Amino acid sequence: MKFSLLSLLITAFLFTGCQPSEKQIGDMLKKNPKLLTEAIKANPAEFIEALNVAVKSAQGDQRQKAETAEKKKLEESYKNPMKPQMRADEVIRGTKGAPLTLIEYSDFECPFCSRGYDTVVKLLKKYEGKIQFVYKHLPLSFHASAMPAAKYYEALRLQSSDKAVQFHDGIFADFSKVKNGEKFFKSIAKRIGANMKKLEKDLDSAIVKKRIDEDLAEAKKFGFQGTPGFLLNGIPVKGAYPAEHFDGIVKELKKRGLVKL
């Protein structure tokens, strides 16, 4: 005769005069784990069904906890927005001093950053005259071309902001070639009319290294480990979310009286 686990437990404690406690059940199973395996063998379909229900329930609980924690973090960020450094010589796209400030911590080799670039372009167009955008560096160690690209961007910035912007856009416009590394970066630099001698001199300069190190430290401070990471008026966005996600933040900022457009 086949017995369920429940039947086995009831039989085992039938003469105790009271219901078994969780500790008693646990102790019994430790002493005789075959009780559990025999019950599973006797009722495999019921066990799998119960296990699936338990897994789904646990996943639902985890999702709910994660969503609650995320909402709490978001609420805190509206009350205490993050404050990134805005250096005097930042490359600013859009309207300098605009009420909306979008900062991106990015990796030139990251495919998700390519999507992030498309989102930035849409936001600059949609909020034209009301937004300023700053690109900052978060080259990931497992992307071989990311750090060299960041150096090229910063070395070109020392020549002019326009050249840095053209280099930035040139990479994402022809993103499939980024893995070609320096050959690709040089071709963009030549096309935009860079001073190649100065570029070569500045690539490994202390000023370029310091600039990238500052961005890396700031990204770490704000909890950005992957790319892209954004701050919209100090509100963090981790990942390549579509423009509509940022629209929601803008609406919330307006609702709370934190920005006037």
Write structural notes for this entry:
The chain has 261 residues and is an alpha+beta fold. The protein has two domains: 75 residues, no CATH class; 164 residues, Glutaredoxin (3-Layer(aba) Sandwich), CATH 3.40.30. Helix content is 57%, strand content 10%. The protein is built from eleven helices and five strands; from the N terminus they run H-H-H-H-E-E-H-E-H-H-H-H-H-E-E-H. It has a five-stranded mixed β-sheet. Strand 2, helix 5 and strand 3 form a beta-alpha-beta unit. Helix 6 packs across helix 10. It is elongated. It starts with a helix and ends in a 6-residue tail after the last helix. The N terminus is likely disordered.
CATH class of the largest domain reads: Alpha Beta
End-to-end separation:
76 Å
List segments where confidence is low: pLDDT < 50 over at least 5 consecutive residues: 1-5, 13-17
Spatial extent as radius of gyration? 28 Å
Report the sheet-strand fraction.
5-15%
The CATH fourth-level homologous superfamily of the largest domain: Glutaredoxin
Instruction: Quickly count the helices.
Output: 11
Order of the strands making up the biggest sheet: 1-3-2-4-5
What's the number of domains? 2
Largest sheet: 5 strands, mixed
| Oligomeric description of these chains | single chain
CATH architecture of the largest domain: 3-Layer(aba) Sandwich
Q: Give the mean pLDDT.
A: 88
Helix/strand/pairing class, anyone?
alpha+beta
